[in-house]
Amino acid sequence: MIVRSLEEVIGTEREVKGPTWTSRRLALAEEKVGFSLHDTVVHAGTEITMWYADHVEAVYVIEGHGELVDDETGDTHSLEPGVMYLVDAHQHHTLRAHTEFRAVCVFNPALTGREVHDENGAFPLLTEKGQ
């Protein structure tokens, strides 16, 4: 059994920062459970364009307000605490944070912890060392 607090992750290599976001990676590929679990903050007034070509992502909003745009259809969805969205078909999408925005994110396959968004907004498909 693994028990890990957010406080234990902050300030370690499991806290990864991008220009518009901070991801605190609570469970990673090294745990070998088939998914990774992240506490993610997106800074107020910013937006991130993403395309997870190799991953499926579920996002559950716990703080803040924003909107999600399906860049393929133009559909826009309001995001607030209690709302979940699932990027299940590798859709290109944009997240806009109207306020500081915090969510719990689950990725499959699991992230290793070293990923950052590339020029296409995707995470590379990395494996654990030795795999």
UniProtKB/TrEMBL annotation:
EC supergroup of this enzyme: lyase
Chain ranges passing through the membrane: none
Gene: ectC
EC numbers for this chain: 4.2.1.108
Lineage top rank: taxon: Bacteria
Pfam families: Ectoine_synth
Protein name listed in UniProt: L-ectoine synthase
Catalytic activity: (2S)-4-acetamido-2-aminobutanoate = L-ectoine + H2O
Family assignment from sequence similarity: Belongs to the ectoine synthase family.
CDD domains: cupin_EctC (cd06978)
This protein's pathway: Amine and polyamine biosynthesis; ectoine biosynthesis; L-ectoine from L-aspartate 4-semialdehyde: step 3/3
Annotated function: Catalyzes the circularization of gamma-N-acetyl-alpha,gamma-diaminobutyric acid (ADABA) to ectoine (1,4,5,6-tetrahydro-2-methyl-4-pyrimidine carboxylic acid), which is an excellent osmoprotectant.
